[in-house]
UniProtKB/TrEMBL annotation:
It holds the Pfam family ELMO_CED12. InterPro entries: ARM-like, ARM-type_fold, ELMO_ARM, ELMO_dom, ELMO_domain-containing, PH-like_dom_sf, PH_domain. This is ELMO3 protein. The gene is Elmo3. Involved in cytoskeletal rearrangements required for phagocytosis of apoptotic cells and cell motility. Acts in association with DOCK1 and CRK. Was initially proposed to be required in complex with DOCK1 to activate Rac Rho small GTPases. May enhance the guanine nucleotide exchange factor (GEF) activity of DOCK1. Signal peptide: none annotated. One of its GO terms (biological process) is apoptotic process. Residues 307-480 form the ELMO domain. PROSITE patterns: ELMO.
Length: 719
């Protein structure tokens, strides 16, 4: 008979004593439980003791979290958090440096526990930490433990970052700005400032003023990867908290200092592999930089703006040595206007009498004009060749430069997500972005020439404009998916992917679709599906057995807490636990927490997950919602919450968990994998039928013959 659901069987340890095996009644007050445990070991003053987990993070057991204790849990009897807080509060004030250092080290460890942290903060412990930092001159191990303890205490959000004193902040800033400081102290100082920046405008301005961009660039150039990472984190935090004008000034300064080239050479192409967190920061830096184009993209052309009219006229004047500008020309106003309209028509404007009207659409707005002017000024030969080659054609096959440029700018904005908010988890950046200044404009210069090339290959007319730009979009997206490392490599690859290659790719995809739509083939597909679905199920479970590293994302978007989860080889238990940075695949024995698969009740995804509902922010980040899932388990319906590192991992884990729950796999990745496997299997099965058309219906069975005289009668065998 199973035990009642409010009773759990646990073991309790104590140093120097034989462990107790007890049945913990969850309805019994924790103080009574502690008294019974202390009485069994003949310990007086039960109120001075507490229970905590013996493994993992060693969290203290309280009335609020006792419901998380599982059957088979191992607990430890230890000093109560209030007693521990009192002892450490005294220890960090000791005049003995060894005692003080040991106390700070233990404080840094225990401060991860919310119960202890509250007790320590209630004793005004943060004030003592401020005093150690503000008044101390130590820059070594003692200071590192102090800053680590401060970070852990602040992580619980009991105290606002805005309450920090100016003296404390200046001291933290000084550690960042000093050269002769321990690297661990600088890393922690950078992390503290990174957390301060988003909390208030005042703190942002203070950090921005005290920690210069030059100093951050110095930290980025060190060989210590962790220090480099923390410097990048603070730089990104400053960029995200800045106003549009401040962000533009900061990016201009970083461009002057050649930060892109440095990142391209020393971070992206360094000997060390790029970590997930650095990849995310590079994605954000790329996104912030590209979003500087948003203001121009969303601004329509003002026909009354002298500056904008001059830019527009410069396009015409660069392309044509117009007679209207020739010295001594006596053209009337009407004649001059007619010549200008003719030249704007040759440039490919739809409204040649008033070309500003073509640029009223936003997006792409003035960004399209900027791109055209950049192309005409930085590659004048290519610009003149494009315009003159098409303006001299009389066979209706001319490619309109201006119209193409406007539409191409819009396509590039959509592909590069210009104007979209940064994702909190994405890591997809283009390496070539960091190898080139004026990336967007240079990319446009390559792609507008691609438009002309593709136009000629398609022998297109004005009626084919949308078709040509659709092909160009496909050429660009297919090439970008290869992640070229430089614009030169992008140019080579995108030009090699000509119209005939696109047609071949499309034809292959179309033939594949047509082959798989024949009725007999569809029937064969249905017969093969169960076997292949079982193969996918096995692969998903195998992936869960290998495990995945997940990140904890708090309300301040900190991503430095890691935990690992994996399925046991017998598919009966999920093991999970916190891990340190740099641990790729911890052994299953090192993961202290367990969830029996038999206790799992259901799988929640997206908005249904409790950790997406708990966030204080009303606006949920779309990317986090797309990667969130939770396992509901046990009779009390506890939840284990996940945020997958990528959409791929999300699909594999949700599929695998559905398999464990005995449900259908529902992810889009499952459908993609099934289609690939079915395609391969069908091609193998139909190999002998190549170039033979498969009828939709089987051929009719012929009628029986009128007589069967053609059959040999063995009864009249020759004598």
């Amino acid at each position: 008979m199973p035990p009642p659901k409010d009773v759990v069987k646990i073991a309790i340890q104590m140093v120097g004593a034989i462990p107790q095996l007890i049945e913990l009644q969850q309805t019994k007050p924790l103080a009574s439980v502690l008294k019974d445990v202390c009485d069994a070991w003949s310990l007086p003053n039960a109120e001075r003791y507490a229970l905590q987990y013996a493994d993992g993070r060693q969290t203290y057991i309280t009335e609020s979290n006792r419901g998380e204790i599982k059957n088979g849990s191992i607990l430890r009897l230890t000093t109560s958090p209030d007693q521990e807080a009192e002892q450490l509060y005294s220890g960090i004030q000791s005049n003995n440096s060894d005692v003080k250092t040991d106390s700070l080290k233990k404080l840094a460890s225990l401060s991860q526990d919310v119960t202890f942290a509250q007790e320590f903060i209630n004793r005004n412990g943060l004030k003592q930490i401020f005093y150690i930092v503000e008044e101390g001159n130590d820059t070594g191990e003692m200071l590192a433990h102090t800053l680590k303890a401060f970070m852990e205490l602040m992580e619980h959000d009991f105290v606002s970052w805005e309450t920090l004193s100016a003296a404390f902040i200046k001291k933290i800033v000084s550690y960042v700005n000093m050269n002769a400081v321990d690297a661990s102290v600088q890393q922690l100082s950078l992390s503290i400032l990174e957390n301060m920046v988003p909390t208030s405008r005042l703190l942002f301005e203070l950090v921005k003023k005290e920690v210069t961009l030059d100093r951050l660039l110095t930290h980025l150039q060190v060989t210590n990867a962790q220090l480099q990472l923390k410097a990048m984190a603070l730089l990104i935090a400053l960029l995200l908290a800045a106003t549009d004008a401040e962000r533009r000034d900061m990016m201009d300064y970083l461009r002057e200092k050649n930060i892109r080239q440095f990142i391209h050479k020393n971070i992206i192409h360094s000997s060390e592999p790029l970590g997930d967190e650095m990849a995310h920061y590079l994605y954000v830096l790329q996104s912030v930089s590209l979003n500087l184009c948003e203001r121009r993209m969303r601004t329509s052309m003002d026909p009354y703006s002298q500056e904008q009219r001059e830019l527009l006229q410069s396009l015409r004047q660069t392309a044509f040595e117009s007679e209207t500008e020739a010295p001594g020309s006596n053209f009337s106003t009407e004649r001059r206007r007619s010549l200008c309209a003719k030249e704007f028509r040759k440039l490919g404007f739809m409204n040649n009498s008033n070309p500003a009207e073509d640029l009223r659409r936003a997006p792409p707005g003035l960004l399209a004009l900027d791109n055209m002017v950049y192309f005409s000024r930085h590659t004048p030969n290519a610009y003149s060749r494009f315009v003159l080659e098409n303006s001299s054609r009389e066979d209706k096959h001319e490619c309109p430069f201006a119209r193409s440029s406007i539409q191409l700018t819009l396509i590039l904005c959509e592909i590069l997500h210009v104007g979209e908010p940064c994702s909190e988890t994405a890591q997809a950046f283009y390496p070539m972005f960091f190898g080139q200044d004026h990336f967007f404009e240079e990319l446009f210069c390559i792609c507008i020439q691609l438009v002309n090339k593709t136009w000629k290959e398609m022998r297109a007319t004005q009626e084919d404009f949308d078709k040509v730009l659709q092909v160009v979009r496909e050429q660009i997206t297919r090439t970008l998916s290869l992640k070229p490392t430089s614009l030169e490599l992008f140019k080579t690859r995108v030009n090699a992917l000509n119209y005939s290659e696109i047609l071949k790719l499309r034809q292959t995809e179309r033939l594949h679709q047509e082959e798989t739509l024949a009725v007999p083939v569809l029937e064969l597909r249905e017969r093969l599906k169960p076997e292949l679905l079982e193969l996918i199920r096995q692969q998903r479970l195998l992936h869960l057995c290998e495990g995945t590293l997940f990140r904890k994302i708090s309300s301040r978007r900190r991503q430095d807490k890691l935990w690992y989860c994996r399925l046991s080889p017998n598919h009966k238990v999920l093991h999970y636990g916190d891990v340190e940075e740099g641990v790729d695949s911890p052994p299953i024995e090192s993961l202290p927490e367990k969830i029996p698969v038999a206790d799992m009740k259901m799988l929640l995804m997206g908005k249904e997950c409790p950790h997406t509902k708990e966030k204080s922010s009303g606006k949920q980040n779309k990317d986090v919602l797309e990667l969130a899932f939770s396992i509901v388990y046990d009779v009390e319906e506890y939840c284990l919450n996940f945020i997958a590192p990528t959409r791929y991992e999300f699909c594999l884990w949700t599929d695998g968990l559905n398999v464990l729950l005995g449900k259908e796999m529902t992810s889009e990745r499952m459908q993609t994998d099934l289609d690939v496997l079915l395609s391969m299997e069908l091609k193998l099965r139909l190999l002998d039928l190549e170039n033979i058309s498969i009828p939709d219906t089987p051929p009719p069975v012929p009628k029986p013959p009128s007589n069967l005289n053609f059959c040999y009668d063995f009864s009249h065998a020759e004598q």
